[in-house]
């Protein structure tokens, strides 16, 4: 076995071990995230909105807000004081419905906080729901930056046995929802940052988590050495997310983004 192949095998084994450890920990935390969190109270009259845009965290398929425990702490430690998680029901059968619910939630959040815009971080399906809201429901007026982690922009063929679920079918290549998202979006103002990993076994092929759309302001960030579950957990990715949220500059499409992240 050559040195390069041995290195790849070792890296893959480490990534799989990390995925298993994260899955185990997440299963323990999962019950704590089933109930939606209590919304943060509005600022006192006359005080104006607090510093920094609110951040909305949006989980993936059959998951909940508990997946963001570590990322939430990281954001809070670095100055993001208003962070909320949006739980959509595991019984949701249409991505568009979830996007509409997200839109109503964001409107309420803007009214409650006094901020005209928010930032969104979506993991997996959560990123696709947020993207649909931004592109197809006018959410670009409310979302300054959308960060997506392991999101199947071009569709994934993983877990074929789960194809009976309508949401899974909408994440398949060529689905009606993905065709809608591929349509022109010339006036979309949201900055998009998409993190994709070369060892993400839920994204098949892994490049499906790259966002390529001629009308969107996109940065694709390639992450090396971790799998799907590690994306919202790993500190290197968290640093990239913070950088993406803190940037105020409009972006051009490409891979320059917050920078490639190697965590092998």
Walkthrough of the structure:
- This protein is an alpha/beta fold and 264 residues long.
- 34% of the residues lie in helices and 14% in strands.
- It has 7 helices and 7 strands, in the order αβαβαβαβααββαβ.
- A 7-stranded parallel beta sheet has the order 2-1-3-4-5-6-7, sandwiched between helices.
- Helix 3 (95-113) crosses helix 4.
- The radius of gyration is 18 Å and the shape is globular.
- The mean pLDDT is 90.
Order of helices and strands: HEHEHEHEHHEEHE
How many helical elements? 7
Q: Unreliable segments (pLDDT under 50, ≥5 consecutive)?
A: none
- In total, how many beta strands? 7
Counting copies of identical and different chains, the oligomeric state is single chain
| Percent in strands | 5-15%
Can you give the helix content as a percent range? 25-40%
Quick summary of this structure?
By secondary structure, the chain is α/β, with parallel strands linked by helices. Helix content is 34%, strand content 14%. The mean pLDDT is 90.
Produce the secondary structure layout.
Layout: H1 3-29, E1 55-58, H2 69-77, E2 83-86, H3 95-113, E3 118-123, H4 125-136, E4 143-149, H5 166-170, H6 176-181, E5 191-197, E6 217-224, H7 235-246, E7 261-262
Parallel strand pairs: 1-2, 1-3, 3-4, 4-5, 5-6, 6-7
